């Protein structure tokens, strides 16, 4: 049985833990709002870009001169996985769920006899993947110094990916991130970015005139589209991370509260027991006289 | 036919403008053009330059460094990677752009060289129009 002093110390330490988790929760809530705003601000651009690329892609798809980013290299041997996770932990299952999805994907591709290469964005994913897929990690993007993810960061990642594609280091690239749905729900998502996926039934949009030619525009647009998708994924991820952290810290705060209640009851009981014991001793001492 | 078209200028990070305009001058990659209501559906890439939109509140001038424009009879959508109000482009920001373009030009090889050179020249012209001096190489 722990002494009164021990119990008191424990209550104090749980209390300070609760203060920390509470503070983290509030910080995450504030950051979440900003991250959500950023994700929403980026949506019009991404949507417009997607619409134009899809329209163009549908009209160029069949031709032999279609850019490689659209038509692919003609094989599917080497798969590149861009796994985007957070730089920090303490955000519930956020990092693990992305890593799990990526791991599954890697396992399926490997079982089909394909080669798997992985680029990690964010420290936590790298730490987890290093355990079993260390041989497949080819690069890491460190965003720990970046306070707010900007388009420049996404462009740098995209350029790296595109350079590897030019050098024929891979055939298919997929990004892994958490799509933000709500504070309590983030959906781990895999999205193929290279070659650009073309919707099966691209609706016949307005017939545009192009200047310069369709192919030249597509050549210019596709790299931008890759960067845009990566940027959108980074922002979704940012919002998801804060959302996940917020709910994880909310849980932790609540658990700490429950624990304090339990410990306080135990503390009061033992104190009462001690008092009763002393009383009994005094009374029985008095009776003995 | 409506006498205005919807003018949207979006960058990856936010929407910069979304207003009705009577005409929009756009620096297309192969020459400037002006989009007016009823324009033929048209998609063009952009070169560094100034976009001028005539709106109710007067002329709005934006600097763009690239991207593309999607024009239909009712709307003009500019998707620009970097864009800001022309008055807000200050010397130091312009210097940064010039430095970047210069290093891209110097690094370019083969077929990319032409486009990098053109980009640099267009940027210089843009600076001249705004009365900004490019720092010496």
SSE layout and pairing:
The complex is a heterodimer of chains A (about 290) and B (about 140).
Chain A: H1 4-60, H2 68-71, E1 78-84, H3 94-111, E2 115-121, H4 123-133, E3 137-141, H5 151-166, E4 172-180, E5 186-194, E6 209-211, H6 214-288
Parallel strand pairs in A: 1-2, 1-4, 2-3
Antiparallel strand pairs in A: 4-5
Helix pairs in contact in A: 1-6, 3-4, 5-6
Chain B: E1 5-10, E2 15-28, E3 31-35, E4 42-46, E5 49-55, E6 58-64, E7 67-71, E8 75-80, E9 83-85, H1 91-107, H2 112-130
Parallel strand pairs in B: 1-8
Antiparallel strand pairs in B: 1-2, 2-3, 2-5, 4-7, 5-6, 6-9, 7-8
Structure in a nutshell:
By secondary structure, chain A is α/β, with parallel strands linked by helices. Helix content of chain A is 63%, strand content 14%. In chain A, 34% of the residues are buried.
Describe the 3D structure.
The complex is a heterodimer of chains A (289) and B (137). Chain A has 289 residues and is of the alpha/beta class. Helix content of chain A is 63%, strand content 14%. Chain A has helices spanning 4-60, 68-71, 94-111, 123-133, 151-166, 214-288, and strands at 78-84, 115-121, 137-141, 172-180, 186-194, 209-211. A 5-stranded mixed beta sheet of chain A has the order 3-2-1-4-5, with helices on both faces. In chain A, strand 4 and strand 5 (186-194) form a beta hairpin. Chain A is elongated. Chain B is α+β, with helices and mostly antiparallel strands. In chain B, 26% of the residues lie in helices and 42% in strands. Chain B is built from 2 helices and 9 strands; from the N terminus they run E-E-E-E-E-E-E-E-E-H-H. The chains are: A alpha/beta (289), B alpha+beta (137). At the A-B interface, helix 1, helix 5, strand 6 and helix 6 of A face strand 4 and strand 7 of B. Strand 6 (209-211) of chain A pairs parallel with strand 4 (42-46) of chain B, so a sheet runs across the interface.
């Amino acid at each position: 049985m722990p002494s009164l002093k021990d119990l008191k110390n424990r209550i104090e330490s749980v209390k300070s833990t609760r203060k920390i988790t509470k503070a983290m929760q509030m910080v995450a809530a504030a950051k979440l709002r900003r991250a959500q705003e950023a994700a929403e601000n980026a949506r019009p651009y991404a949507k417009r870009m997607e619409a134009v690329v899809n329209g163009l892609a549908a009209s160029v798809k069949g031709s032999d001169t279609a850019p490689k980013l659209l038509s692919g290299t003609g094989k599917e041997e080497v798969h590149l996985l861009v796994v985007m996770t957070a730089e920090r932990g303490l955000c519930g299952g956020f990092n693990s769920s992305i890593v799990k999805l990526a791991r599954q994907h890697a396992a399926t591709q490997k079982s089909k006899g394909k080669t798997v290469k992985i680029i990690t964005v964010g420290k936590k994913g790298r730490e987890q993947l290093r355990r079993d897929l260390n041989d497949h990690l080819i690069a890491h993007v460190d965003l720990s110094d970046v306070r707010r993810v900007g388009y420049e960061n996404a462009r740098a990642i995209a350029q790296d990916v595109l350079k590897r594609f030019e050098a024929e280091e891979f055939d298919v690239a997929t990004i892994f991130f958490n799509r933000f749905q709500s504070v309590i729900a983030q959906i781990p998502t895999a999205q193929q970015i290279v070659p650009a996926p073309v919707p099966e039934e691209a609706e016949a949009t307005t017939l545009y005139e192009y200047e310069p030619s369709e192919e030249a525009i597509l050549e210019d647009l596709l790299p931008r589209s890759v960067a845009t998708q990566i940027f959108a994924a980074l922002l979704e991820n940012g919002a998801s991370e804060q959302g996940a952290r917020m709910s994880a810290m909310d849980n932790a705060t609540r658990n700490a509260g429950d624990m304090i209640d339990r410990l306080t009851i135990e503390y009061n009981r033992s104190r009462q027991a001690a008092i009763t014991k002393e009383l009994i001793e005094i009374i029985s001492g008095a009776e003995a006289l | 036919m409506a006498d205005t078209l919807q003018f949207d200028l979006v960058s990856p990070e936010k929407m910069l403008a979304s207003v009705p305009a009577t005409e929009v001058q756009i620096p297309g990659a192969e020459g400037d053009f002006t989009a007016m209501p009823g324009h033929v559906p048209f998609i063009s890439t952009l070169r560094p330059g100034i976009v001028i939109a005539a709106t109710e509140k007067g002329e709005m001038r934006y600097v763009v460094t690239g991207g593309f424009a999607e024009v239909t009879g009712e709307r003009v959508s500019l998707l620009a990677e970097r864009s800001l109000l022309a008055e807000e482009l200050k010397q130091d920001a312009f210097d940064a752009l010039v430095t970047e373009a210069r290093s891209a030009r110097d690094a370019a090889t083969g077929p990319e060289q032409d486009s990098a050179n053109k980009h640099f020249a267009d940027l210089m012209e843009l600076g001249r129009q705004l009365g900004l001096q490019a720092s010496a190489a």
